[in-house]
Design brief:
single chain, mainly beta, Neuraminidase, 4-stranded antiparallel beta sheet, signal, Sialidase_sf, Sialidase domain-containing protein
Length: about 475
């Protein structure tokens, strides 16, 4: 009896450690839900390993990869913070993937040490990077991507609104390329990919708890697809390519679908209801037939014009391999004008996986911030970042500013925060696509005339990002 009382007394005196979260090693779990932090912003480096004469199919600093993980950042005016997620790692010499979350405080101009939401353990692949969403109560939702049918995806929610200190694990499900959209009054409309017969597109819905989900419903299955999507006032739009015979290296064509009723019906840009899943490459959802032209299609970004019409940013190419044989690699805009798709070219780039973002601003300015310029690793992923402006709805474009120049490593995957603040308008990572390197994270303002680097090493709990001009 005395032994039992002693055990009970000790239990009251000493707190019990929290249960390990999936993907977090038991010895990394902190008491009382304290987060595991990394002492700096260290992006993941990756090489797909498919190399040819001019280097890898894609490689380098891929902390903000892929274009199909959306969104990666959100500005919240109520707390004046931009919350963001990225694929991190433990050290510049390691390729140990961590799904990271943090924020930039626009009042103090500082960032905290970033938090590990999910440790991918033996995974080094940024296809498992996270995306982020915020519900009306301010809870942060982190969707950590799985990969194929072997690694499940994970859904986390912050226990406290607008706070990265503690995340609750809600579900693990089969999904890759997570694109969660919060629909006011309905909950989540979740777009994602499953490897059921190639990379096929699906969607599912959930109420606000994020635990109970509708069945996965197939959106498109024509051998496989890559999609990009966006949401505005409950209007969800998606654009995607197709993979003939399931071959991603032959990705081509451009398709578009939309829903305004939380996935109950899907239509073309012109409002024609389509029968799902799409299986016919000649479907009315087809925006442009690039297959007949022998052109490949790489998805980059999608948004809404002032009238709520879709605008798609993508790149066309002549080859899946890097190097001059694939030129021209052309950044292209497809704009639904209300009765037709208008297609306009922007500029040419050096690599299929150069990725940037499209901004359609209230004053009518259309802006692209992207690595369109050759970088120090000329034929590698990414390059030097530039700002391109159009004032006639994408018909004509002018490069107005070089955001980065004389860099030692390529910059890539510039991401547009949802509801972007002028002083944190796009963020990205750098890295050497030719060999393992450290990868640092950056952000720029709307004009592209100021760039800051997030601290790679941190001794204190908070630090001020360093202006590019002050870098050694």
């Amino acid at each position: 009896m005395r032994s039992i009382l002693l055990i009970l007394a000790l239990a009251c005196l000493f707190p019990v450690l929290a249960e390990p979260r999936p993907g977090i090693a038991e010895d990394d779990v902190k008491p009382k839900g304290e987060p595991r932090r990394i002492n700096g912003y260290k992006g993941i480096w990756f090489d797909l390993g498919q190399r040819s004469e001019f280097g890898s199919k894609y490689s380098g600093g891929l902390g903000t990869y892929t274009a199909k993980h959306r969104p990666l950042a959100i500005y919240v005016p109520e707390v004046q913070k931009t919350f963001f997620v990225y694929g991190g790692t433990t050290d510049k010499n390691e390729r140990h993937l961590l799904a990271m979350a943090s924020y930039y405080d626009h009042r103090t101009h500082q960032v905290p040490k970033p938090v590990v939401v999910h440790d991918k353990q033996d995974v080094d692949d940024p296809h498992d990077n996270p995306s982020i969403q915020i519900d009306p109560e301010g809870h942060l939702w982190v969707y950590v991507s799985g990969r194929g049918r072997k690694r499940p995806g994970h859904i986390y929610r912050s226990r406290i609104p607008y706070d990265i200190e503690s995340f609750e694990h809600l579900a693990d499900r089969e999904f890759t390329y997570p694109q969660p959209w919060w629909i006011e009054g309905s909950g989540f409309l979740f777009l994602f990919t499953k490897y059921t017969n190639g990379r096929e597109l699906y969607w599912s819905t959930s109420n606000s708890d994020g635990k109970s989900w509708s069945e996965d419903r197939k959106l498109a299955g024509m051998g496989g697809h890559y999609q990009i999507s966006s949401e505005q006032n409950g209007h969800v739009i998606t654009a995607f390519n197709m993979h003939p015979d399931g071959n991603v290296d032959k990705r081509t064509n451009l398709y578009f679908l939309q829903t305004k009723d939380n996935g109950k019906t899907w239509t073309t840009a012109g409002g024609e209801i389509v029968k799902l899943p799409l299986t016919d490459p000649e479907s009315t959802a087809l925006v442009h037939d690039y297959r007949s032209e022998g052109r490949l299609v790489y998805m980059k970004d999608i948004g809404f014009d002032d009238d709520g019409n879709p605008v798609i940013l993508y790149l066309t190419s002549g080859s899946h391999q890097p190097g001059p044989a694939g030129a021209p690699r052309t950044w292209t805009i497809a704009h639904w004008t209300g009765n037709t798709w208008a297609i306009h070219e922007v500029t040419n780039s050096t690599h299929n996986y150069d990725m940037g973002s499209l901004y359609i601003e209230p004053d009518g300015t259309w802006r692209i911030i992207a690595p369109t310029e050759p970088g120090p690793q000329n034929y590698g992923t990414g390059g030097e970042i530039a700002v391109w402006i159009s004032r006639d709805q994408g018909k004509n474009w002018n490069k107005t500013r070089a955001v980065t120049q004389n860099s030692t490593m390529n910059h890539g995957y510039v991401r547009r925060p949802r509801n972007a603040h002028d002083n944190f308008y796009g963020f990205w990572a750098d890295g050497n696509p030719d060999s393992l390197s450290a990868s640092r994270l950056y952000f720029t303002n709307r004009a592209g005339d100021h760039v800051w680097r997030l601290p790679y090493e941190m001794n204190d709990s908070f630090a001020t990002p360093k202006a590019l001009g002050d870098m050694p």
